[in-house]
Amino acid sequence: MDGSDATRVWRPDWPCAVRSTLAQHRRGGGDPTLRLAPPGERGPHWRASRTPEGPVTLAVESRDAAGEVRAEAWGPGARWALDQLPDLLGAADDWTGFEPRHPVVAEAQRRHPHVRIGRTGRPLEALVPAIIEQKVTGKEAFAGFRALTRKYGDPAPGPGKELGLWVQPGAEVVAQVPSWEWLGLHVDPARSRALVTAARHAPAFERLIERSAGSEALDRALRSLPGVGTWTSAEVRQRALGDADAVSFGDFHVAKDTGWALVGREIDDVELAALLEPWKPHRGRVILLLGAAGLRRPRRGQRTSLRGHFPHV
What is the pTM of this model? Predict the structure, then answer.
């Protein structure tokens, strides 16, 4: 990598798992905004984003066994992205007060002691794909997000363009997408209305981030919008704020997988809330640790296909 607009070398005080932390923000294997090096490689890992200063292409890699991280950035948002790099990779994640409390969680922590929750500081960037993912299969949701980004987003700056990376469309663009165009993007009217409304309120979310108003304030603001509920808010707070207590209640897999791992059977959201209560304010961290340990119930049956009444993308 050379010819970047800005560079940074950063040495975290823990063995930072760059790839797995960045992967928390990936929307499917074909995510046009994120390209990760194969597992086991140090990088570079590539990310395209729309910062308050403008678009950026960010390349991040681990440089030595001690955990030195090198990053390069291109585009108007280069300096902002490099200033925010430690937060993106989990430096602001606070484990204070966390206790495993359960032998399965304790073992997961022992095997993955350096798992961190990164935060982007970009609420709309997390909100748009979260709304698209509401109540549909992952395959359908990821196809819709790819189509939206490639049609209405921007090619990433610098080498990002040659790599096929794209920057998500900004709030002004999302708010102006015509209703009939959303159907061609695998997004039904209920979700498209929520997306347009969310885009129109994006400046309010940005101000909350700038003022460090906290997760509860962002949660209230998000859930005040039609079409944004508990699940969507949690998905956004996990990524934008690195909220270690945010749990995606309503997710098809989270309650079932957590119950299978901790009590040996699938449970529902009511049981999940009671089960996780002792871990507050680290309930989301428990989910993350179980996922890092690969503790998911066995999947059975055929995968659901894309719904046929949407145009093919």
Answer: 0.90
